[in-house]
Write a structure and sequence with these properties.
The complex is a heterodimer of chains A (382) and B (227). Chain A is α/β, with parallel strands linked by helices. In chain A, 34% of the residues lie in helices and 18% in strands. Chain A folds into two domains: 271 residues, Rossmann fold, CATH 3.40.50; 100 residues, Rna Polymerase Sigma Factor, Chain: A, CATH 1.10.1740. Chain A is built from ten helices and 13 strands. In chain A, the strands form three sheets. Chain A has a nine-stranded mixed beta sheet, with helices on both faces. In chain A, strand 10, helix 2 and strand 11 form a beta-alpha-beta unit. In chain A, helix 1 crosses helix 2, helix 3 packs antiparallel against helix 7 and helix 4 crosses helix 6. Chain B is of the alpha/beta class. Chain B has a single domain, classed as Vaccinia Virus protein VP39 (Rossmann fold, 3-Layer(aba) Sandwich). Chain B is built from eight helices and ten strands. In chain B, strand 9 and strand 10 form a beta hairpin. The longest helix of chain B is centred in the first third of the chain and has 14 residues. The chains are: A alpha/beta (382), B alpha/beta (227). At the A-B interface, helix 9, strand 13 and helix 10 of A face helix 3 and strand 3 of B.
Chain lengths: 382, 227
């Protein structure tokens, strides 16, 4: 394996290049060379026992904490990761990489194809969660870390954490799996399909070749984001936040302006998303989530894996108002792990903030993550 | 004895029933107090189930393997004989189907430890007899309309149920309301009258494996004979 690291001074993130690696992916395609953009926080200890991989969700990136130079805002989980935060970077060495297929510096549809000056676009191979994790595992290897203390993620990040437990249990000690599932449900696939159709029916999309004219299918991508954003909230949270309040007006317009605050909010979400996310990447990553399915195979994989996985500890967390990845889905994982009498903890947190709860202020989530990490780390650090 | 002391006493007695290095499931584990005690003093591997969200969160944050859930719905997911001991401390009287729970405990665990307040204690009998109202005592401190305890039973009732279910009582400890400890099986007369709380170590009757010989293979089956 050839790897080299450079620092992207413009974006202040490291890029790991894996050249002539011939990464065989699930579809059967081979990615001969790829790169992953990543950020690290804190310091790796002498025994290399304190490394934590944080996996980002669908539209996340490597900027988990601190400042995100792309958006100019705080990292997507800066309330969770940092000095003295629940995932304490005074204590742990935190790694976060942009997934394969992403658009924040890792190899994906908007990057140039190997040995050419044309972007992949629709020629990018269809990737899966398993492929993302395989690519990440080579990054961890090239950082000379034999064993990760923990792999942590919410939503698509939870899928990656579960995939780590299945594919590389010997390289990790525990996973924290938040608002995830064994499989992407029919309803979730349906929502993703609507989002993809919105993008693909935008005339500017042009079979994924919009970049040739330096254009972006803004309308399609923003509609996709608006739909998705609804699924991340809950009815109660929307009602609490917006109700039927009107936006910058006292009376309704009898037209199709954004009369209501909720409309204005969604339009804003769509518009700002277009500035930071690639439409093709959105197609590929939603597809990767759709293909995720361990419903029938998870238990068998854990029970009969040739990789020893008895040592693994699992923390599974769900939220009462999450209708995208409802508690029932998390419980199925817990159920299967319990039937194999594995070391699993599970908590359903009571909140009305919906699927997005894992990114928001939830003191009980902070407490269990902090406590789980601290106490389990104390056990290996003795 | 107040409630906290009686729980501590309960735990220390449960500890005496448990061998070293065993795998334990604590049903209704709270914030992991008993699990901690058994990990420290018995080198146990512990798992817990807790219905109360905040207690479960505390236990998880303290580093214990705890599943937030309802034992009456969730016990079925555990495999047969996956624990050495399954503990149900002071909770059987709050279960919807105590009999089903009891058989689940002994399906999941090789042994079960069950403790409960005895409704046959003389104070309770006396209260009901004299006042004509539902008794309220230290171990059953709730009024009838807000009690989580929905199935009241006495030691005699429990012994009968065990007998009916072919459950072996390996050990049984009684506590008087002053905290005095005695062996229930040895003091048969008056035991139901003076036992304030009872702790039982239970298992199923073990029968010799039935061997069926055929010309090629020997089949062995460790079975439990039902009534």
């Amino acid at each position: 394996m050839k790897t080299r690291f450079t620092t992207d001074t413009k974006l202040e993130s490291e890029i790991a290049y894996f050249e002539n690696i011939n990464l065989k992916i699930e579809s059967g395609d081979i990615i001969d060379s790829y790169k992953l953009a990543f950020k690290t926080y804190g310091k790796l200890n002498a025994n290399k026992t304190n490394a934590i991989l944080v996996c980002h969700a669908l539209t996340g990136d490597q900027y988990v904490a601190g400042n995100n130079p792309i958006t100019g805002r705080e990292g997507w989980w800066s309330r969770m990761v940092g000095p003295n935060k629940p995932i304490d970077t005074n204590k742990f060495f935190v790694i976060c990489s942009n997934v394969l297929g992403g658009c924040a510096g890792s190899t994906g549809p908007k990057e140039l194809q190997n040995g050419s000056d044309v972007a992949y676009g629709g020629n990018f191979p269809s990737i899966t969660i398993k492929d993302m994790v395989k690519a990440q595992s080579l990054l961890i290897e090239s950082l000379n870390i034999e064993k990760l203390f923990s792999v942590i993620g919410g939503s698509m990040g939870a899928m990656q954490a579960l995939q780590w437990a299945i594919d590389f249990p010997d390289k990790i000690l525990n996973i924290i799996h938040i608002a995830g599932a064994l499989k992407h449900s029919a309803q979730n696939i349906a929502f993703h399909e609507v989002g993809r159709q919105a993008i693909m029916s935008d005339p500017i999309w042009k079979n994924g070749k919009y970049f040739e004219n330096n254009e972006v299918p803004e309308r399609g991508l923003s509609v996709a984001r608006m739909i998705a954003h609804i699924t991340y909230l809950s009815e109660n949270a929307m009602h609490r936040k917006f109700g039927r309040k009107l936006q910058s007006r006292d009376i309704i317009s009898f037209g199709f302006d954004a009369d209501f605050q909720v409309e204005s909010y969604l339009r804003y979400q769509g518009k700002s998303f277009v500035e930071r996310f690639d439409a093709n990447s959105y197609l590929y990553l939603t597809r990767a989530m759709d293909y995720f399915d361990h419903d029938e195979t998870f238990r068998k994989n854990i029970e009969f894996s040739h990789n020893p996985n008895n040592h693994l500890k699992y923390l599974i967390v769900s939220f009462t108002s999450d209708w995208l990845f409802p508690t029932m889905e998390s419980k199925m994982i817990v159920n299967q792990l319990n039937s194999l009498s594995r070391e699993v903890s599970f908590l359903e947190i009571d909140t009305d903030k919906g699927h997005d709860s894992f990114l928001l202020e939830e003191p009980q989530l902070d407490d269990v993550i902090k406590g789980f990490l601290t106490n389990n780390f104390a056990k290996i650090d003795e | 004895m107040n409630k906290i002391n009686s729980i501590r006493k309960d735990w220390s007695l449960i500890e005496t029933l448990i061998a070293e290095d065993r795998k334990i499931l604590d049903i209704g584990c709270g914030d992991g107090g008993l699990m901690e005690q058994l990990e420290n003093n018995r080198n146990a591997i512990t798992h817990g189930i807790e219905l109360n969200r905040d207690l479960a969160a505390n236990a998880i944050a303290r580093g214990f393997n705890v599943v937030h859930g309802n034992a009456e719905l969730d016990l079925s997911q555990y495999s047969n004989n996956s624990f050495d001991y399954v503990i149900l401390s002071q909770t059987l009287q709050a279960m919807m189907k105590p009999k089903d729970i009891l058989s689940e405990l002994l399906r999941i665990g090789s042994k079960a430890i069950v403790s409960f307040p005895n409704f046959g204690h003389w104070k309770i009998r006396l209260q009901l007899l004299i006042s004509g109202k539902m008794p309220v005592t230290e171990s059953l401190p709730y009024t009838w309309y807000d009690t989580p305890n929905i199935h009241f039973f006495t030691i005699k009732d429990f012994l009968n149920l065990c007998n009916e279910m072919n459950i072996v009582i390996e050990k049984s400890i009684g506590l008087t309301s002053k905290g005095k400890q005695f062996d229930i099986s040895e003091s048969v007369t008056g035991v139901n009258f003076f036992t304030h709380e009872a702790i039982f170590l239970l298992s199923y009757k073990n029968y010799e494996p039935i061997k069926i010989k055929s010309s090629k293979k020997v089949f062995a089956k460790n079975s439990v004979i039902a009534n």
